[in-house]
Design brief:
The complex is a heterotrimer of chains A (about 350), B (about 450) and C (about 300). Chain B is of the alpha/beta class and about 450 residues long. Chain B has helices at about 1-20, 40-65, 80-90, 105-120, 150-165, 185, 190-200, 215-225, 240-250, 265-270, 290-300, 315-340, 345-355, 360-365, 410-430; strands spanning about 30-35, 70-75, 125, 140-145, 175-180, 200-210, 230-235, 255-260, 280, 360, 375, 390-395, 400. In chain B, α2 (about 40-65) crosses α11, α3 runs parallel beside α4 (about 105-120) and α12 crosses α13 (about 345-355). Chain C has a domain at about 15-220. Chain C has eleven helices and two strands, in the order ααααββααααααα. Chain C is globular. The chains are: A mainly alpha (about 350), B alpha/beta (about 450), C mainly alpha (about 300). Chains A and C meet through α6, α11 and α13 of A and α4, α9 and α11 of C.
Chain lengths: ~350, ~450, ~300
Amino acid sequence: MTTIISSKRSFFFPEIVATCLIAVVAIGAVPLVGSDYLMDAVLTPFLALALAAVGLNLLTGYAGQVSLGSAAFLAVGAYAAYNFSLRLPALPLLLDLVLAGTIAAAVGIMFGLPSLRLRGFYLAVSTLAAQFFVQWALTKFGWFSNDNPSGVIDAPVLRIGSVTFTSAAGRYLFSLGVVTVATLLTLRLLRSQTGRNFIAVRDHEVAAKVIGVPVLRTKLLAFGLSSFLIGVAGVLWAFAYLRTVEPAGFNLDRSFQILFIIIIGGLASLRGAFVGAAFIVVFPLLLSRVGAALLGSLFDSGVLEMSQRIVIGTLIITFLIAEPRGLIALWDRGWARLRAASGKAIET
Amino acid sequence: MTVFRRMKIALGAALALGLAGTVAQADEQFFPLQSYRVGPYAAGGTGFFGGFIDYLNLINIRDGGVNGVKLTWDEGETQYEVERGVEVYERLKNRPGVAAWNPLSVGIAYAMIDRITKDKVPLITINHGRTDSTDGRVFPYVFPLLLNPYSETSGIVNYIASREGGPDKLKGKKIIVLYHGSPYGKETIPIYKLLADKYGFELEQIEVPHPGNEQQSQWLSIRRAKADYVVLRGWGVMNPVALKTAQKVGFPADHIIGNVWSNSEEDVIPAGDAAKGYVAITTQASGAEYPVLQEVIKTVYGAGKGNLDDKKRIGSVYHNLGIVNGILNVEAIRIAQEKFGKRTLTGDEVRWGFEHLQLDPARVEALGAKGLFHSINVTWDNHEGDGRVTFQQWDGAKWKVVSDWIAPDWAALRPIIEKSAAAYAQEHGIKIRTSGDDPVGQ
Amino acid sequence: MFDYQFLLEVLIGGLLSGVMYSLVAIGFVLIYKTSGVLNFAQGAMLLFAALTFVSLVERGTSFVVALAATLAVMIALGIAVERAVLRPLVNQPPITLFMATLGLSYIIEGAAQLLWGTQVHGLDIGVSDIPFDVGGVFISRFDLFAAAVAGSLVALFTLFFRYTRTGLSFRAVADDQFAALAVGLRLPRVWAAVWTAAGIVALVAGLLWGARLGVQFSLSLVVLKALPVLVLGGFDSIAGAIVGGLLIGATEKLAEVYVGPLFGGGIEAWAAYVVALALLLVRPSGLFGQKLVERV
């Protein structure tokens, strides 16, 4: 697609314009005019989930290994970062973040080991072991939550050097920074030999082996890197968004939610992870507000909520039928058409 | 950040001016409700929030509000999920005249503690919540009214003692606690240990993994251990399954004592006959024979404004908990109004009301709730308010009260609570209040 | 002294619980075998069937009529799913189909609660659960009944697949979709039949589990118990689902009682997965699964 229209790039350089625009809006305008509600309840969870989706996309979209245990790695990241900040208060927060990601990566590699033998749904279901084991361990061993009687952890203040991020805007900007850096690094990685190895393993494992791709190592690396990103997303979820988390919050539904994001957004697309996250976070909120405004006087909130469930389920199926490659494919098609139209306009 | 903030305030002010016409009238008090009418815990949510809304409606219809101040509310569905609860909090917190938050969810309550403390609005966690928030010196805005988890534990042990004929008879008895595999379930483990040491009964605590739809192995262990009593610290589907599996291994239902989350109709009806004889703790009796319930039926349901779809659920455990929660919220506002004036109060003023929420049995009777609940005595440093508990037995069709109003052993529990609260205060840099007149908030 | 009687009791209890897991797993297998879909909506279907049945009974319908009506609803649901979801998604990768069934589970759960409310119901199917005492070992009457039901269900399916035309085409499709198409079998019809069969399994499993747990939202969570059974037995083998269920049930209970205390208990939630995984490392397609190189 890109090759066809690249000749028009000199006139219509949308990537650069779009990126700059998004950056200006995200950094400048949102914290200025956005309400606390927008940043605290919409944008910050969006960013955390988008990063988790980037992580899962690395594993599922690029390396072709399905995981149903993403929420477990979110939890590992969150609880690891909490323990680093609690037990080694001298460490700067950003280092905690990286260390938490590393722990999540280690756990991810451990639960990725079955991938060396298993494929498809056998692998997917076996990753559920991570889901249940991690939740059990975090609940069982009080040490992880500093013996809080309810297993709940409270986030420390977000601080880089002498700057603290305590307001809604601050937490949002902190998340934005972390997500941007992590996404850029992922992008770089995907364009390297490692990224090409991922795709080779996904597309044809045997062929990949023949051309000399270290399949086993690549798979484990995919699990590790993916879990690293999801772990960091877990830190954002716990520290920047909810600020008080319990193990029960990282349940199977959360894993499915992240899987939904990458499928709806588009497999093997980083932009897809963001578009998908926006859909999954914003759409239910929008739907419930519209539903309540239009029909709230007629039905109670339970009826509305159940109807929304039906609507969301229907939409998901409709999307999968209309465009199995995800929202991002729809977007690209629309974009291409727009460009073709504008290109024609210039020519004539 | 400061530049941003200043510009935002300016922008916000401009917006507020533009919207000034839509601001609510001055004499309303608003209850934001983080309800859950869908999902695994919907049965509890519809009952509790139904009861709460029914009582608020009763006050509006019968009395025209609290001293003329109308009560209003708005619901946001949470499905019992923390992040949805937080979303609803962020959405509704800026409504004018917010009185108090009543989430009826431990997870959501925990996530709100920092937020409501900063915003200076009370958070009511009736019958549940964070035990150490009983210490109002550290948690000025959090109120685990009537019963915190530790008091519940002590109440249950005291009840078993009374059935055995006195605390000294507990010695050598074997009590097994079957708890839900979650932080909620584990919270009372040290307290049962403490009480086992104090009274000399043998104790075993067995975990049931979430959601608890399989308990064969746990109950076989219980049978092998020849337990005298089983305390059921359950949750959702775990409760009926426990009762059914108990029957399967031949353990008598009347020696199973349920805790406060295992005490509703929803917990026993699915178990059918296996639940007959099962006993559970409660802070509020069930049944619709109390005058306040009769007034709700007459005034609210009579006017077609009742919140429950199924009128058979009027007077059920969760509905009555909602009614009692309504009484406590409304009385806190009434008490605060006496000090601050009969107008819309701020969250901080309502907090003062809760800290002086003292309803003796006579006042409870005047409110039409004699026998529904006993009394409450909240002070600035005791946010639980010394609630009494009673025990009900399921006869196959309804709950029947089978005990007096029992007092938990508050004095023994207070030091543990204070220690935990002090640790929290230190961790969070909170100044411990030394009197009720202390300014609160960081 | 080691308590062998207790061991026996745990073992029998575990095997009987395992039958209950198998019952749920069979519904998955039917669909996976013919269309390669891991149908996550099976739990929602189970809830929907049980809720419909119990609500009809509570509204005064007789047992038999309610059963027939629920059966009709499940058949309609099966056909509708084939029309609206499977047919448009034919030839999509398995993961897409899996996601579609997740979406489907939202719809069914939402519809079930919208129609019948969120109340918790008791379900009495007329089998009391007073245990047999066999030489000091308690055996649950209800679980025996459930095992008998599961057994006859499997027998019925076997007869059906062996001796009816639809059954034979089902097997043909399971063996080789393309070959089946080539000889002129109508895939959509087979799929509709299979989803209907899965609906019937959901109804039976829903009633039995509903009688054990009560009919309520968490009924849909029993699928989590079926997943390790599937991994162990193989996604495409009914025999595997039965043997896998028995194995998982027994090891899970034994592990909880004898290994659990070492970790402080409550290991049941993941022990089943560990057992399944350990076996998979030796046999990557489960005990009875076909060895297929497949990709998600």
